[in-house]
Amino acid sequence: MIIKCTNCEVTGQLYWVCANTVQDKIASFHPEFSQAELALLRNIYSEIVTSNNGYVSSTWCLNLCSTLNQKLTKANAEEFLHKMINRKWLSCKNGKYYMGVRSIVELLQYFKETYQDNLHTCTLCKQVLFYVR
């Protein structure tokens, strides 16, 4: 585990995050969430990272439910997304979902390995930025 200080890219609020430093199948498995919910979250991450603006609309997230291999109703997806916001995995402002502070801290290595060509780095502080204003 590591304790890391980070700012929310959307609000600018400072957070201290206790994060897992081991990235293996056991550590990344979240038994409380369904496979459909995790597939939705992966697709949201992918869209946020590959977008030019660093966010995805709430409408797009809910419409994505119909494209998943597993069944997930829009009502269940909306409830799941609220959980992800409360747990700081995602951030939401004005109907748009942004990368949450926990995702940035705990999944940064995954994002670097998977989306290396799509990541933006601040020229001053050398930190990866997901939301580019």
Automatic annotation (TrEMBL):
One of its GO terms (molecular function) is zinc ion binding. It comes from the Eukaryota. Its EC number is 2.3.2.27. Transmembrane segments: none annotated. InterPro entries: Nse1, WH-like_DNA-bd_sf. The keyword Zinc-finger applies. It is an enzyme of class 2 (transferase). Keywords: Chromosome, DNA damage, DNA recombination, DNA repair, Metal-binding, Nucleus, Telomere, Transferase, Ubl conjugation pathway, Zinc, Zinc-finger. It catalyses: S-ubiquitinyl-[E2 ubiquitin-conjugating enzyme]-L-cysteine + [acceptor protein]-L-lysine = [E2 ubiquitin-conjugating enzyme]-L-cysteine + N(6)-ubiquitinyl-[acceptor protein]-L-lysine. GO terms for biological process: double-strand break repair via homologous recombination. Its main location: nucleus. GO terms for cellular component: chromosome, telomeric region; nucleus; Smc5-Smc6 complex. Signal peptide: none annotated. It is found in: Chromosome, Telomere; Nucleus. Pfam families: SMC_Nse1 (PF07574). Component of the Smc5-Smc6 complex. Belongs to the NSE1 family. This is Non-structural maintenance of chromosomes element 1 homolog.
